[in-house]
Write a structure and sequence with these properties.
The chain is mainly beta. About 0% of the residues lie in helices and about 50% in strands. The protein folds into 2 domains: about 270 residues, YVTN repeat-like/Quinoprotein amine dehydrogenase (Methylamine Dehydrogenase, Chain H); about 270 residues, TolB, C-terminal domain (Neuraminidase). The strands form 12 sheets. It has a 5-stranded antiparallel sheet, with no helix packed on it. A hairpin with a 3-residue loop joins strand 18 and strand 19.
């Protein structure tokens, strides 16, 4: 595939490996809509197709997922232009109103509506209570919210509020005072079939409430301890319950039994963190989101099977939780996952294998590669080498010999043989991996927090990203020079593209410039990121890839950035997504190589 264009060369082979002739054809599908920031999925029908609707608040996307095929389309959500108007900030699980072709979305003290035809967001008047969850019963055209507020006395009160789907007018139908020991610390709500009763759930209990009398009682049959969602079952006399640890259950309204539907103890269960639950149209069918994998699964409780409807996986093999640093080693990309204490080897097709895991690797965060040795820096400061077979050896034991060193952020090769640059949030050190000797080069300025480092060995200088700034550090005397900054709180230097909050960087000797990956964390811009080129001669910053420059998915927060010197193609890790991105240097287009 040629990045930055629509060219795709396909070689077709039969089972014996013989090329298939020109008379044959092949269908190729490109899928670049990333499912991110899972808040749940609303089910409904659109143009006779059963769909799920997914919100990505960071990217301001409304994503339509066609359930039979898994195909998805992202629409930009159009928010009000008026200053101060409510916007999509921290949404909860949406619900779908098929009659009005609208989504209702809980968000702080508000409920938004999103028109499915135009993707336009409007907002009902604030409810004066934090909206924890909502539910919509189409048969009764009834929208309810579960809210929590604190009275001036400090009392914590939970409320069930009915909201008019047309006007947003609201009425409290029932409440309970947790400070007086009433009810439960509910987080989820579900209307029963006729709208007379509502069910609410905390992590370890499910209660019902009569909306006419306000009477509340627990379902004593529910003995689960990690409940994440509840829903009306397809049978009016049952409630479906999702427990992150145990699986999927039903309990009947007569409270006679708790029935397991699908167990997460099954070795074949794909779930990392089951989050929300929606019954499907077919008996025994449920749709479950996973907010760690950012995926939507279909559970068939009748056959005890699970199928993936939509996810952002690319490549087979073990799934990283977090990807930090990455580089090339032995002809493949390798990346570190500090959560799983693992170094993954990533093939050209995106498949992943564990090159090394555990042992001396404790929260690895940084990588350096020679032809046959991989240096791995761990959070504690220890440095481990790995050979092509995955064998580990400790070459710098910070825990034993230098327990006063701060936690490691990044490593780089020093200009002198046998030495590494050791970057911490507070400064830059040089370590001798033969003798263990440590030399302090320089400390960071006040309020700065270093992230990543790279080196120009000829000039004997290092370049480091820091909080909303980029610095040059002279390795012989520790002198620091601000190269990029546009925030008065952290220093001003250079011109051009926004500095953002830079993390990964790479020195390009051919153009005497730095390539910098930066996220944007300022209010109203959170979630957007860019790669820009910082010219070291005039300190001008030019965007190379961003939301408005280049096509394809962007990570919420990039971490490492590396450039292939031969092709100019850039490799970037997405910290939250656990993904490896490839960026075209000409067009700025981005594709996910492995996730």
């Amino acid at each position: 595939m040629v990045l930055g264009s629509n060219e795709l060369e396909v070689l077709m082979l039969d089972a014996a490996g013989t090329p298939i002739g020109d008379g044959e054809s092949v269908s190729v599908e490109c899928q670049d809509v990333v499912l991110g920031n899972c808040t749940g999925a609303a089910l409904g029908f659109w143009e006779d197709n059963e769909r799920a609707y997914w919100l990505d608040a960071d990217r301001k996307h409304l994503i339509h997922i066609d359930l039979p095929t898994g195909m998805r389309i992202a629409e930009n959500i159009h928010e009000p232009a008026q200053p101060g108007a409510p916007r999509l900030t921290n949404p909860g699980e949406p619900v779908f109103d098929e009659g009005r072709l609208s989504l209702y979305v809980p968000d702080g003290q508000f409920i938004h509506t999103i028109n499915m035809g135009t993707a336009t967001l409007t907002t009902f008047p604030g409810l004066g209570t934090k909206v924890l969850d909502i539910d919509y019963l189409p048969e009764e055209d009834m929208l309810v919210a579960l809210g929590r507020r604190f009275e001036p006395s400090g009392a914590c009160v939970f409320e069930v509020v009915e909201v008019d789907p047309l006007t947003g007018d609201s009425e409290v139908l029932g409440s309970w005072n947790r400070s007086l020991g009433e009810g439960i610390d509910a987080t989820r709500i579900s209307l029963e079939a006729d709208g007379t009763y509502v069910d609410v759930a905390s992590t370890n209990a499910v209660w019902w409430m009569n909306l006419s009398s306000g009477e509340m009682e627990p379902f004593d049959t529910v003995t689960l301890s990690n409940i994440s969602d509840i829903s009306r079952s397809m049978d009016d006399n049952w409630i479906s319950i999702l427990d992150r640890t145990e699986g999927l259950f039903e309990t009947d309204l007569d409270e006679t039994k708790l029935t397991p539907l699908y167990s997460f103890d099954d070795a074949d269960s794909p779930f990392s963190s089951a989050f929300t639950l929606s019954p499907g149209e077919v008996w025994g069918e449920y749709f479950v989101t996973d907010n760690v994998q950012d995926a939507l699964y279909r559970v068939d409780s009748a056959t005890d099977t699970v199928t993936l409807c939509a996810g952002s996986f690319i490549g087979s093999g073990p799934s990283p939780t977090v990807l930090m640093d990455e580089t090339e080693f032995q002809g493949q990309r390798v990346a570190v996952d500090p959560t799983n204490h693992c170094v993954y080897s990533i093939a050209s097709d995106g498949s992943r294998t564990e090159l090394a895991k555990g042992g001396l690797l404790v929260a690895p965060v940084s990588l350096l590669a020679t032809d046959d040795i991989l240096y791995v820096g761990c959070d504690s400061g220890s440095v481990v080498t790995i050979d092509p077979d995955g064998n580990q050896e400790l070459v710098f034991d910070n825990d034993h010999d230098n327990d006063n060193l701060p936690r490691l952020k990044d490593l780089a090769f020093a200009p002198d043989d046998g030495k590494l640059l050791y970057l911490t949030g507070e400064g830059l050190l040089e370590i001798d991996i033969v003798t263990g000797f440590v030399r302090e080069i320089g400390e960071s300025n006040d309020d700065c927090n270093f992230n990543q480092v790279c080196v120009n060995p000829e000039l004997r200088v290092a370049y480091a990203t820091s909080t909303r700034a980029v610095y040059m550090i002279f390795l012989d005397n520790g002198l620091q020079v601000l190269l990029a900054g546009d925030d008065p709180n952290y220093g001003l230097a250079g011109f051009g593209a926004p500095v953002g909050d830079p993390t990964g960087l790479e020195f390009d000797s051919g153009t005497d410039s730095l390539l910098v990956a930066a996220s944007e964390t300022s209010p109203g811009n959170a979630g957007s990121m860019s790669i820009y080129r910082l010219d070291l001669a005039d300190l001008w910053r030019t965007e190379v890839s961003a939301k408005a420059l280049g096509q394809g998915p962007l990570p919420v927060k990039a971490w490492s950035l590396e450039r292939d010197a031969a092709t100019g193609i850039m490799y970037m890790t997405g910290l939250k997504e656990g993904a490896l991105y490839v960026v075209d240097p000409i067009s700025g287009d981005r594709v996910i190589a492995s996730r």
